[in-house]
Queue: 3 jobs
Job 1
Amino acid sequence: MAKDMTLLWGPGSPPCWRIMVALEEKGLQGYNSKMLSFEKGEHKSAEVMKVNPRGQLPSFTVGGTPLNESIGACFYLEDVYKSQGNKLIPDCPKEKAVMYQRIFEAMPLMDKMAIVVYYDYKVPEGERHDSAVKRNKETLTAELKLWEEYLQKTPGGFLAGKTFTLADVVLFPVIAYLFRMGLCEKRYPKLAAYHSALKDRPSIKTTWPPTWKENPQTQDTLKEM
Amino acid sequence: MAKSMNLLWGSGSPPCWRVMITLEEKKLQGYKHKLLSFEKGEHKSQEVLEINPRGQLPAFRHGDNIVNESAATCLYLENEFKSQGTKLIPDSPAERALMYQRMMEGLTLTDKLNAVIYYEWFVPEGERHNSAVNRNKEALATELKLWESYLQKVSAGSYLAGAFSLADVIVFPNIAFAFRFGLSVGRYPNLAKYYRFLKDRASIKSSWPPQWLPSAQGFDNLKDL
């Protein structure tokens, strides 16, 4: 059960956070959990490499089998523990379809956010261009507008419809990260309302990044988006 | 069933191919489909934008349900049609965990292949650098070596997660794509074995990219990897 699972994670990392939310939703508290530091390079430690040759967090094992890819881990947990905790995949085919699509749309959203927020980290000095920085910001703005529209279409307040699903498990941490990086609530009112409505959900509140609790001040990186 | 499905696709696109393989495996032949041309920009046509506002292929509709993002489409189809055709998600939790892991890693492989093969498509002329091209090639070579190691024990009937599964649906098109673009069979013998074992599987053979057939000769972008 939970005791056969081990999660190595970094605070604030959306992929790590989403596994933690899924574990809470499925009533799997009691898993082995160790917080590591990206800044100290602990994601490249021998302990992580043993489980995840990519040297990335999350590193997650279930009964000894690595399941490091966070979206895969979320699907696995819902599948195998279907009959316990909260039901995270709706029965209605229409909502299920929306849920599946939104889950995989988390990837372009994260990529586009990362290339803006971490441009200098990802692109060596000699390869940086103002034209790229500008284009990346425009691309992220267009992506965020799309998510504002998506939230307009689901009056239930959740991403796939009337209930909290795996789509929210996968995406809430990304949206929270956007606001942590200073995204303007007035310009993105639907995203802001979503963020505000879900931040006190027990599975989310319990797993809120400890470093964000210690230092609630948001950053300015995305303030002008 | 199949008659209420519509797939807009492009030839040679691994994501499109994944959906077609799944439709075959789930015995959903007879679905409506339309081949579009990336070169002519048809992926940005009104017809596509109505189903997929991202202007990307595959664009897929089942009755009133739209499910874009190939991995989402494949998961949706496997779950809606669980009891027909091939079982694409293994029963045993250990194999299921491995399947989800490899399936999601397949999306990372896609990104790294695209970064090399479509470099000039993605990066405007004034922003291109040999240093980036080299770095992307090294990253792809490292990624492919990882897949070589995953397929050490490949044999007939034993693929990425045991029996043929969604992991193979997602990943096989990428491997076929890599060989089409000149990947060395000698340097990647396990990948070559995997390719040989699966290229004649009915669902794969019947959905083989049409423009790959008349000329067996591909390209040589990856020959030095």
Job 2
Amino acid sequence: METRRRSIGLAEVFLIVGLLATVPCRLSALSVTVNDVECVYEFVLYEGDTVSGNFVVVDHDIFWNSDHPGIDLVVTSPAGNTVHSLKGTSGDKFEFKAPRGGMYKFCFHNPNRTPETVSFYIHVGHIPNEHDLAKDEHLNPINVKIAELREALESVTAEQRYLKAREVRHRHTNESTRRRLTFYTLTEYLVLACASGLQVVYIRRLFNKSVAYNRV
Amino acid sequence: MRLRDAVIRRPAVVALLLCNMLLAPGVTAVWLNLPASGTKCVSEEIQPNVVVLADYAVVHEGPADGLPIISAKVTSPYGNTLHHKEHVTAGQFAFTTTESGNYLACFWIDSGDKSVGASVSLDWKIGIAAKDWDSVAKKDKIEGVELELTKLEAAVQAIHANLLYLKSREAEMREVSEKTNARVAWFSIMSLSVCIVVSILQLWHLKGYFQKKKLI
């Protein structure tokens, strides 16, 4: 990582700064299947950048009961220490300030044996501060305001993605409830009818001639 | 300011394309760790008529000549292959979705060195993030702050569209919930009546049986 950064010249640093003022750092919400541990990496360019995101476990047909351990998320900084961790949830948002630039590791851990699909979204937002303004004369304070506005809109978009993913999960639950309701009710009626039929057969057998002859 | 902006933007635009291939795998992309054997897949649930733009590249990690070779495959929810490349170290694909569902992008290692994994950086953009702002800027001849504000306006419109979508999904889900609620009530009453009917039938049948057997 260090060798790579040193090979970038000064002009390219300015270009990156200029690019960041024009190209929003943005990702789409990808889903990954977590069998045991799945890690994705995200590069944070500047120290002090706000890394925000969310993840939601997309439900399959297997529904979680109340003692399901959930999915854990552990965020590790390039130095190796844990920056953020969330334990045992079916989906949550996270936000932290990056203590340094570099490659951050986001690991999802599934303590259960059944594979789960996790839909995640990670966004690294950078707002040029006075240090960047002093370094690059092409940035003026309006770029700072625009960057703040862009980050605010980005957080709204991220919230919407989270809501969309949770809505999918909620809808799965609802439709499963509806299906199970119909299935269980019909089964219940059938079982009831069979039980009463068996009762009748049993009582008839109790009173038939070959048995009753010795009793009644 | 405008001339200076124009002078700095043109090399920035050129550099953007270069940077996307050389530096940016790792600037605005998520990195995945490919296992030594097996496939790593990421997926996303996408609506129809959405533009998807993605760039993937194997990341230099060890010696420069030992770059692993990978293959990539992108499939639509109905199983059609949208992109399939073997024995490459980088590539890109773009398509417009025609059906709603889960779009899957899978990567696996092809090269002979099966003992070591590889890191692939994937830059996956859909919808508004995949819009080519450079061509819009050139066509409408806007640049600088106006371009930034145009991007923000497009982001706000996307937020509005997302909100309307969420609202309609919530309305559908509410209908399913209310239908399920009505069904629960109806099925419970029916279950009670099935119980009563079955027990009446039982009693009627047994009474007739005992009268036939001259027991009562």
Job 3
Amino acid sequence: MSCYTLFIINKAGGLIYKRDFSADAPKLSVNDQLRLVSTFHSMHAIAGRLSPVDPASGIDHIETNTFQLFCYQSLTGLKFLITSPAHTSGSLEHLLFKTYQLYSDFVLKNPFYELDMPIHCSQFDTNLDKLILGK
Amino acid sequence: MQSGSSGRPKRLQPLVDRPLSKGKGEVTLSAFGFLFSEMVQKCQNKARTVQELESRLCNYGEHVGVRVLELLTHREKGLKRETRLIPLLSFLTGSVWKTLFGRPADALERHTQNEDEYMITDKDPITNKFVSVPSDMGAFSCAAFVAGIIQGMISGADFVGIRFSCGCIWIWMEH
């Protein structure tokens, strides 16, 4: 599965992790990244409210002619976003779910990590590489 | 040392007369991961330097080690405690490791130069499985907890041990 970038957003809408998995991923400045992520966070909330169906989940999947974006929101309000090339067949949601499992293993059980802070855990990075690039 | 009371039902017998249970034997790795993470954070709040953190963690391990020695001696060896060093070390790397971590320790070696030194190696201690140590903490390893368990067991068995821990666990012992 080829992917461009993974973002993890905490429940306040702040970016806590960003990782590029491909050389084709667009290079964004730090400010742009933060702006992008907080915009997505607000859009996700608005989409949930606008939906005609009552228990609405917000944005799951955005498809454009240049890329696709998948979003998984955990029960704790954490969002996992992944962008991939336009013609990716199939959903990458299972990848996001596995990323959530890796997060709960290598970030939440790390005593040196503070909740809602940017993630700097080497074990999380190596296992994420194995998951996304090793596939 | 069987219960000396009359035929009362087990739950009415005094606590010290009841036979020692076999124990559950298994705990989920996640539960251990979270609990251990909280323990390390608690030590970190109290400690000011990395050395102090390591020694606090080791101290917690000692509490566990003393109790583990008593419990496993009772359960596995029929109340016969090891009094000689090498059988104790084999007990440690075999039964104790299996009970605590689900597998025997990877190696037990004697140091080539100093006859009094022994090394127990564990390539993948479960204490370090989910922990990523930040680079400013240097060579700190949460395996200090396991070193503490060993330290507690050795001193509980009345030997004199000096401990040191790193990524795999090495214990230098002199007696």
